[in-house]
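We treat protein structure as text, and this decision shapes the records that our systems exchange. Because each token names a local backbone shape, the row as a whole describes the fold. For reference, a complete record is included directly beneath this paragraph.
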Amino acid sequence: MKKWTKYLLLLILPLMTLVSLAGTSAHAATAIPDISEWQGKLTDKQVSGLKSQVAFVINRRQYGIGHVDRYASHNTALYTKYGIPFGEYDFATFSSPARAKAEAKTFYQRANPNAQFYVLDYEALHTSRGQSNAAVNAWYNEMHHLTNKKLVFYSYQSFATSYANQARKKFDAQWIANYSKKPTIQTDLWQFSNHKYFPALKKHVDASSILNSKKPLNWWIGGTPNASANN
């Protein structure tokens, strides 16, 4: 190898490494974790480190009316402190349309006002099958009455189509979990893993990525709702 070629390589290789690392960092920052009390009471160090590793966070506020997530207020305050955009979700336990309305109202009252959007996490059936769509619809209507922020429906694909296939279409976006492959129904946000490692947290957590280019990052963390999913 000629001497000048060696020198050229010495100059190029560090630049290639930097480009590669930048690409890796950018890719990592597109991940979107959802966090609940199971991840614990986060520290300033964890959250400040998390900022460069995520696009935004989705935080659980409550497990139905009866249980407030133990660290929701603490953790969302840290997201605000370190400038990490976030949404909040209600793990639904309502047993009727009337209870769904009450649950939505309680969720809204408890949520951090800095949340960019609100999520109905609907993955466990507590109503009769015949009331399921009506209950989801009641939750949506109450939240729509209370706020003009985006409303997002979350579930596993099979559960969504079995128990809320009509009501879910009213929401501004669909967040669908399917770990083996991409969902085959309308999906704006795809929960692709329940075991992704985030170095700042030193934990494996659920993780999602944006799937619909018509609802890019700025749709989730700013602005006003577009048309609902309608699919």
In short: The chain has one domain: 32-221.
